[in-house]
Amino acid sequence: MDNKVVNGTTIAYQEQGEGETVVLLHGFCGSSAYWEKVQPLLAEQYRVICPDLRGHGSTDAPMGAYTIEQMADDIVGLMEELGIEKYTLLGHSMGGYVALSLAQRYAFRLNGFGLIHSTGYPDSEEAKEKRLKAVSTIGSEGITSFIEGLVPGLFAPENVDTLTEEVNRVKEIGYKTPPQGASGAALSMRERIDRRDVMSSTTLPLLLVAGESDQIIPLERLFTTEGDNVMKAVIKGAGHMSMYEAPDQLVAVILDFLRKMDKAEH
Ligand code: MLT
Q1: Domain ranges of the chain
Q2: Does the keyword Hydrolase apply (predicted)?
Q3: Could you tell me if the CB of 22 is within 6 A of ligand 1?
């Protein structure tokens, strides 16, 4: 694990491989470890950087509410520190919200971007209530109990009892989330704005990856745009966690996207 100080915040990241740069952003209560089955395969052909977002993993977890914009600024700053001017950015779930904010304001940094089990929609009123409940549960019961409740719902119902090793691994990663980091991030998601227009107006290559049985973000909340620049894929037999439920399918989709981008450029 390496790190860089960006605007006074230490941002940790894992780096592997050489070539054009691909940045992978994890979701809520995850870390760069979420990509452990994906990063080595992509790194055979690309330079792959997996940061820990603010409040997660080994990155700083300041107290208080975060914003999605702040998390995107952390990534922009990290990439500037690394001297990488252009990259392809793929975000899982909350990481996708961060990718959209970055694409909205720093499109000139991107070769393309993508959402994996994520959405351009903001939180509904009901979801906003749930964020407050999450913060209160984390405060009263602690992060371990919160993660125990959260993780099974991330997997496709049919995978919860069969992929026990993977479910336990995702819990193990989740337990390490600093409680103030999980709360700060939950509040950032609560306040995020509608960014479907970023998806519909971009001319950059855009990858949208949905899980066939995602109980958190159903396909129709992701596939909100069409266009020659948009590549859509549905991962069979996966819920919200294809990087654990079907990593080979996910890697094949990402490589297909990256290769099409490479061809279009040359
Ligand atoms: C995530 O996996 O990042 C979260 O489930 C996203 C969300 O709660 O909106």
Answers
A1: 2-265
A2: yes
A3: no
93 lines ligand 1 (CB under 6 A): yes
> Quick check: CB of 209 below 6 Å from ligand 1?
no
In this prediction the pTM is: 0.98
pLDDT tens-digit readout, 26-56? 999 999 999 999 999 999 999 999 999 999 9
- Please name the residue ranges forming H helices in the chain: 39-42, 68-81, 94-105, 125-141, 143-150, 164-175, 179-190, 196-201, 219-222, 242-245, 247-265
Q: Which CATH superfamily is domain 2-265 in?
A: Alpha/Beta hydrolase fold, catalytic domain (3.40.50.1820)
Pick the atom of ligand 1 nearest to 118's CA. Answer: 6
Q: How far apart are CA 89 and CA 76, in angstroms?
A: 11
Task: List, for residues 68-82, the tens digit of each pLDDT value.
Answer: 999 999 999 999 999
Instruction: Please determine, for residue 88, whether its predicted confidence score (pLDDT) is greater than 90.
Output: yes
How far apart CA 96 and CA 60 sit, in angstroms, is 20
Token output for 136? 């209160």
Q: Which strands make up the sheet holding 2-6, listed edge to edge?
A: 2-6, 9-16, 47-51, 21-25, 87-92, 110-116, 206-211, 230-235
Pocket test for ligand 1, best of 68, 146, 240 (most atoms within 8 A of CB): 240
- What CA–CA distance (Å, rounded) separates 198 from 126? 24
Closest atom of ligand 1 to 240 CA is 2
